């Protein structure tokens, strides 16, 4: 790894107290280029502009993907990263499907660690704050023809972020627009999945909702995800989340929560299985739908207070000491190093 | 329109005799920026690099789309562009679905004309050669958060291209991977649709095919498109092509061919209707499948010689004076100004 340090840190101009998500970037970035069929030596260097011609492949053909995770101060004052090897694996899952080269997983984890170490002044110290790490990769050949890029750039930038507060989360069951289909790219974090989702999300906003709940491409009957989070339901004392498929992003938070729930007595039963919109609505009407929440890196757990379905709003409790909050607490304890890390989830700097 | 001319043309270094598609670019490009909710004054300026930070929105969230069309010398020595207003409309159709701002259609057409005029030395004179025009648009804000870009860049670059020769075209009916779904972005020319297709195309290549025939997302029973072309079948003396939907790109070549076929006696019947793979295979077995061809800007008409389906290769005639070639001839006559342009398709410089 080549390391070129910035002359003078920009940290004194940064706002680590009230950071706006994804708008300030730390002093350094990691860049690694793929050329002639192989990855060159990665370089950590000053964050700054890149120069491309308008023929940049990804602008036309969208071979682009990303990851997202956080580095933060644990209770004992070390900086930790949560399960970074899972992001490395998922990046490569996305890469394969997008016909992009895989990036060495150990280099991914090691690169993140070195980069955070160099910019450790950028890791906010306030509780709930963190340094958001954004690895991404894109086709960087400069030609305009509908065939795969030959060159790629893997890059990591970092941005200090505050605690996630979404306010009241009202979601609408989306029955018109589709995020992904069997055989498609829905299980990847390719850029196009996000650009393709903005329209439906905006429609939902205009109707007074915060987000959509995506349903299956065939009949819009099955629940898939909510916005950019996986989604879980507690019906009676059973936790239910849709199974993974090539239509759903395999969330690392989802995986961690499933592991925790199977290992604790927070809920009685844990089910990964297809769940129909009608089952959720019936449970809401019967009063057995206890809680609904999104699962993702940003909020860890995000309680949903309303599900809108065909014009009717179904209210859901968002208790401060219910299932969602118990899960969040248990996960946070591991993340902060306050509970036994028996799954070896934390990678410390 | 602001115009800044290049100091010295690069035309003397260009190869207009044997151009490689999309690798050489003409002297100028058109750039127009969208900021604070409106398009700024467009500028024609020297083709050259753009500088972005790694937080460039489109690298992460894929709001990116493009168009493709050609300018070429007509028989009377004027330079013509084929139905550019259709590309302008389609760009805006894509833009809406990708939650991007629409670009004024008259400015699109006028911009192309002015740009080609300035770089007219780049329009190859050889028959079958042309200047490929590539309008495209992408989200250009520089933040990393999963919400729509606030700024956008519309750009047009141009590349001299030779006649399209694909060799023998063998297509494989794709029953595993999916290009698009109802409610998705399949009817747009968003970048992600292309990046998402490379993997399946490569699989088909490895099995000895040139391209895939995409089938519907639900059951892989209905024929959709072939690679980046719309597809037509002649069964008996009937031309059949799948109807437009939100899963299929509305090809301008397809539209033009439908218009021509309905207005001439090249085929007896013209049908836009869902067509099942099994219908095509049955016709191939019965000997009534006369011809199959792709329709698109690149090749106009591209004859398909083989359809691979579940391990069996069905051979199809590719006659030099059959339906496909009659259609190509009729369309080419209009494009070259040799036949009456009764639909007003040609825009001359
Ligand atoms: C579409 C989608 N689903 C789910 C998730 C949750 O994944 P994770 O828990 O790994 O953050 C994300 C965010 O990464 C996402 O973008
Ligand atoms: C997916 C797809 N289908 C069909 C077409 C054919 O469209 P057109 O005839 O406008 O070139 C294209 C090419 O633009 C395409 O990319």
From TrEMBL, chains A, B:
GO MF annotations in UniProt: branched-chain-amino-acid transaminase activity
InterPro entries listed in its UniProt record: Aminotrans_IV, Aminotransferase-like, B_amino_transII, BCAT-like_C, BCAT-like_N, BCAT_family
Enzyme Commission number, as recorded: 2.6.1.42
Enzyme kind, highest EC tier: transferase
Keywords: Amino-acid biosynthesis, Aminotransferase, Branched-chain amino acid biosynthesis, Pyridoxal phosphate, Transferase
Catalyses which reaction(s): L-valine + 2-oxoglutarate = 3-methyl-2-oxobutanoate + L-glutamate; L-isoleucine + 2-oxoglutarate = (S)-3-methyl-2-oxopentanoate + L-glutamate; L-leucine + 2-oxoglutarate = 4-methyl-2-oxopentanoate + L-glutamate
Reported cofactor(s): pyridoxal 5'-phosphate
Protein name: branched-chain-amino-acid transaminase
Originating species: Owenweeksia hongkongensis (strain DSM 17368 / CIP 108786 / JCM 12287 / NRRL B-23963 / UST20020801)
């Amino acid at each position: 790894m080549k390391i070129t340090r910035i002359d003078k840190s920009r940290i004194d101009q940064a706002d680590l107290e009230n950071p706006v998500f994804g708008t300030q970037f730390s002093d350094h970035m990691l860049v690694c280029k793929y050329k002639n069929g192989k990855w060159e030596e990665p370089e950590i260097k000053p964050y700054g502009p890149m120069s491309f011609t308008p023929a940049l492949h990804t602008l036309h053909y969208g071979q682009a993907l990303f990851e997202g995770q956080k580095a933060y101060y644990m209770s004992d004052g070390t900086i930790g990263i949560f399960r970074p090897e899972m992001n490395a694996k998922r990046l490569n899952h996305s890469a394969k499907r997008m016909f992009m080269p895989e990036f060495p997983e150990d280099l991914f984890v090691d690169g993140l660690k070195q980069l955070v170490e160099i910019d450790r002044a950028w890791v906010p110290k306030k509780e709930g704050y963190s340094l958001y790490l954004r690895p991404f990769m894109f086709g960087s050949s400069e030609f305009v023809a509908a065939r795969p890029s030959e060159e790629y750039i893997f890059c990591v930038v970092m941005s200090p972020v505050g605690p996630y507060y979404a306010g009241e989360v009202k979601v609408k069951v989306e029955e018109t627009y589709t995020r992904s289909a069997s055989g498609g790219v829905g299980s990847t974090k390719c850029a196009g999945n996000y650009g393709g989702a903005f329209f439906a999300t905006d429609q939902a906003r205009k109707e007074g909702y915060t987000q959509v709940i995506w349903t299956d491409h065939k009949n819009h009957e099955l629940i898939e995800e909510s916005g950019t989070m996986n989604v879980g339901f507690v019906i009676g004392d059973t936790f239910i989340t849709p199974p993974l498929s090539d239509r759903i992003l395999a969330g690392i938070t989802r995986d961690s929560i499933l592991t925790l729930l199977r290992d604790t007595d927070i809920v009685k039963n844990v089910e990964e299985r297809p769940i129909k919109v009608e089952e959720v609505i019936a449970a809401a009407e019967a009063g057995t739908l206890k809680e609904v929440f999104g699962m993702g890196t940003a909020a860890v757990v995000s309680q949903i207070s309303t599900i809108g379905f065909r014009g009717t709003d179904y209210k859901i409790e968002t208790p401060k000491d219910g299932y969602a909050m118990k899960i969040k607490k248990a996960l946070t304890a591991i993340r902060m190093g306050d509970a036994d890390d028996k799954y070896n989830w934390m990678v410390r700097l």
